[in-house]
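Hi R.,

Here's the chain you asked about this morning:
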Amino acid sequence: MNLFEALVQAFRIPELRRKLLFTVLLLLAFRVLASISIPGANPKALDLLFGSNSLLGLLNLFSGGGLSRFTIVALGLNPYINATIIMQLMTVVSTRLKELSKEGEQGRKKITRYTRWLTVPLAALQAYGFMALFTNPSLTSAGPILNASDTATYVTVILTLTAGTIIAMWLGELITEYGVGNGVSLIIFVGIIGRLPGSLISYGSTGGSTHIVQLVLMLVIAIVVTAGIIEVQQAQRKVPVQSAQRVLNPRTGMAAQGRRNFLPLRVNAAGVIPIIFAISIMTFPTIFANLFQSATGPLQQASTWIQQNWQPTGPSIPLNIIYNGIYFLLVLGFTYFYTAVVFDPNDVADNLKKQSTFIPGIRPGRNTAEYLGKVMGRITLAGALFLAVITVVLPLATAAITRVSPTSLYLGGTAILIVVGVALDTMKQIETQLLMRQYRGFIK
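And the predicted structure, written out as tokens:
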């Protein structure tokens, strides 16, 4: 069965068809919101700012291009992602939140509610920071991005940006609840895909034989990277397990030993979430700089320094190394952190013990948990290094090979990783829906 036949078969299932159509409609609604610009923005100043700052380009990537056009969803889902990070960290620290996370559906709903509440002040704070940046008269040679001389305009824009984030968060949760799942990731995915045609047209219009060679090299690298991402995202470490229960053979009527099976451990169990988390953390200094742009003394000097230097391809090579080094370590750290959230060796060991299943040569219970923890730690290191290399090292190496500005490539590596990762996760969810109804899988 090919891909198109699987899609046709999926649409024949009424429940799955409703989920797919519902998801598509909500994603289209987000794209409509991402095309409604806030009145009064200076397009020329926006182009100058985003053409010279790759960190803002990363934020623009997660807003589906809404930030570079200063639309009502310019903040995208960044505040919601930051709130999610804070709540997950608090789940590790706070005993009460940790208990809530173990209470099943009711506990998850309460944590989700707290995350929504936290998103509102974070969105307002980030909106204020961008307003402080965009209204700076000396921001670009074309002047400020927005002239907001009166308080009413200032407050109105902040409320609009905050409301846009809340709407985007709501759409993402609706997709997760009633659509095909992965609502937040799908919104980011559609935003990246929506920018792709314009980026290709813009880059392809420059012409020249040297440009054609660069374009071919980048396409070859992109294809190789995509194949590598698919391989790593699909890779598993199969841990053999065996049931201690004896089953009755219907043919002979005699008891036989339980079947051997395996426990699949994904090399990259965290998916693309560590990349999204790491970028959100790396934007905190920029938000601080925007907030204190109009201050005086040391705060104003620190703000100016951050805006000029805190980016992956800034004017200073040592600072670029520091920035990319911190980014690299954050990707590694968040990969381990999120893997620990989604995979608890103690819970898996307890479940295996309850099912009278064991790993050959390993005692059930604590020894099984320690063994699974060690195995997961080793394979997670491979997955974390892969994510970090794709997002941090590969764009800089590609820039050196193709002699193209690393700014666009820096965005390209992250974009490919997110697009491929989200696409694979979504396909697996659709495959699960098909398999539940005794259909052949979406991925053959």
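The longest helix spans residues 366-402.

Let me know if you need anything else.
M.
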